[in-house]
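Subject: Interface between my chains keeps coming out wrong

I've been trying for a while to get a sensible model of this assembly. When I model each chain on its own everything looks fine, but I need the whole thing in one frame so I can look at the contacts. Pasting all components below, labels as-is. Any help appreciated, I'm running out of ideas.
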Amino acid sequence: MNRVQPKTLSGFMELLPNEQVLFNQMIDKIRSSYEKFGFLPIDTPVIESSEVLLAKAGGETEKQLYSFTKGDSNLTLRFDLTVPLAKYVAEYYNQITFPFRRYQIGKVYRGERAQRGRFREFYQCDIDIIGDEKLNIINDAEIPAVMYETFKNLGLENFTIHINNRKILNGLFEAVDEKEKSVEIMRTIDKIDKIGKDIVVAIFKDDYNMKEESINKIVEFIEITGTTDEKLEKLCNLGIENELYKKGVEELKEVIKYIRLFNIPEEAFEIDLSIARGLDYYTGTVYETFLNDYKSIGSICSGGRYNDLAGYYTEKQLPGVGMSIGLTRLFFILNDIGLIKSDKKSISDVLIISMVEDLSKSIEVANILRNSGINAEIYFDDKKIKAKFKYADKLNVPYVIVIGEDEIKSGKLTLKNMQEGTQEQLEIEKIIDKLK
Amino acid sequence: MNRVQPKTLSGFMELLPNEQVLFNQMIDKIRSSYEKFGFLPIDTPVIESSEVLLAKAGGETEKQLYSFTKGDSNLTLRFDLTVPLAKYVAEYYNQITFPFRRYQIGKVYRGERAQRGRFREFYQCDIDIIGDEKLNIINDAEIPAVMYETFKNLGLENFTIHINNRKILNGLFEAVDEKEKSVEIMRTIDKIDKIGKDIVVAIFKDDYNMKEESINKIVEFIEITGTTDEKLEKLCNLGIENELYKKGVEELKEVIKYIRLFNIPEEAFEIDLSIARGLDYYTGTVYETFLNDYKSIGSICSGGRYNDLAGYYTEKQLPGVGMSIGLTRLFFILNDIGLIKSDKKSISDVLIISMVEDLSKSIEVANILRNSGINAEIYFDDKKIKAKFKYADKLNVPYVIVIGEDEIKSGKLTLKNMQEGTQEQLEIEKIIDKLK
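Reply #2:
Try treating it as a single job with all components included. I did that and got this:
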């Protein structure tokens, strides 16, 4: 027979079962965190009409698209969950209840250059709150509350949610009359950690021909430090007479106030005046989240407030605020640095191993365990005892029940704790209590 | 602005949130049923190399494929979860523990002609048990045990798992020397309910030129009726001297024996000698599952035993047994006939509505509820009370907590049961007990 080599495409994550168990636990924890705040699930198609999906797309994205024709249709695989959300909200506007709080967890596709830790198929886990015409600023504080809940739930300890407001940045650039150069200025500021303040100032002066007064103001701004409250105070006292700037500071104050009401501890968030998150989409609060011990991997959860979700599809003004976790990359990184916390390393709570040929007793025990809500597996193969325990080991199963002639006679089963290597004889009811 | 009409492709199911909640509950129940038997999750890519995915595909399938090129690569979207499983097992053979019990729940793609109840993107929920060279017959009985558990879990009552064995059919056709015509004979038998016995016999005689003796044997076979044990006895006493046939009857007996040990009640399964499930893939036990009150919708869960999972990829002999639920179609049908059973119609267990402007108390209450594992949502918008309750209604939320000045003073919150329309004043601890 002509055989084909079985091979998964590069850039596509495919896990062995024991890792998949951990991955799925992460999805479950993210989902239950999102649901704890009452977000509603949606599940849009992976394939959409290209016309619909690319109504908004720019040139940079288009190169990475998985686009193709089928019959007369131009189709594209979704490259994020935001455009499908915009389509969904515009399409079902009359059937949706606003504010619309939705989550979606699903795969998206980007034909990026394959490299370690970059994936062409990856899970995004998004939440957004969409208002009809307006949306209360408290929502901007609830998003970080969900982030905090989610990462705590994932077992991460040392992370910080960085918060800024785009109105502050845009207002500042307006105030110093450098609005047109805001993209370049932000990009340069972004590098300040690497190149130092003096070089930043030199670039402002020599490359961008900025006035000294403007440069001083911006430097003063980016040098704002201190506690959250000190930063807020300094922002107020910077003497910037610009309405947008003032509105931004006001919003940031409100968000911080509510973040505290949501019980996010002080060490888990900070005002970070250097984050901007691109310059065309977000219009207010913006977030990035960093693992403090692994800052170099970049933000693991980002998002923000936007004025207009679906302007390409509808005349309705649909402001929103949301965030996204790129789970495939996050899993890859956490797995790499050993930060995956798991409650359960296996699907089965127990493996039943029979020492006798007749499997009736094993099946009976499995029935009882399963009816009690315990995941139980029976080893059916007629192999040597060593092979059976090797199977249990490879499954990472925490307990094994051994059923031999003694156990059938006495009614007490041997329960072996695989981690500790201990074993005891117990009645089935006791075993159920122990496993639950 | 030039607007694009937001439109989902036809043949792609996209649900409103309240229905998505029910759909997701079905997935959860299927998954937990599969996990109760210790099946391990895998998650293969939606996109595979065409060469790999089509190593085995026939002409009929190819027309329906979503195939395209990206750069130098010919790519195809998966059209089932069986070929990806074969690839997976062949690719990771050395890292997998056999017997390999895997489940996969995911979307597959078939460009079928769009019609009501047919979908181009749909979820399959598969389980398979793959052996290395051999696989114990008990596994053929555990698959129906999982089916039974799953459908009970989904709240379906009146269903029957139909069981047959392909060796019996193949052996019978060998015995009457009509092996080459087996496809046509099976197809004709399939129609017996519609066209009647006499026409079937006429077709055998006139169209297929079959010997009278052969026809009599086949008629005798398909007319076997009675209880499961009567059927087994009649199969033994049919006087068919063929090894394959005898092996098939023996296997069927074994499977029935174990099915009973797995506590599947007699009314939930039956021997059905008319099911064959195609003729090139399955080699032993085959299953179909019918809703007894809705037989016309066809089998809602099918599968069987095969000798060789991955012959196109590997020289390893990998026998297996499995089954698949086409969830998208099943959901569509059950929703249509009103058979979706749901424990919970909303994500939020409770919606908190504030009668005062200051939301501090509402947030405080939400924090406590969420920390107690309750899904709690706060209504943030400053609207009239009527609009707030309308929102609660649309969410299908079972309870609303109302927080006004009285509640803040007394410390007792108003808990409203939305279904019953009743309300009471309770302390937060009492509310937690009630909601849990």
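Reply #3:
Confirming on my end. Residues 308 and 319 of chain A are 5 Å apart (CA to CA).
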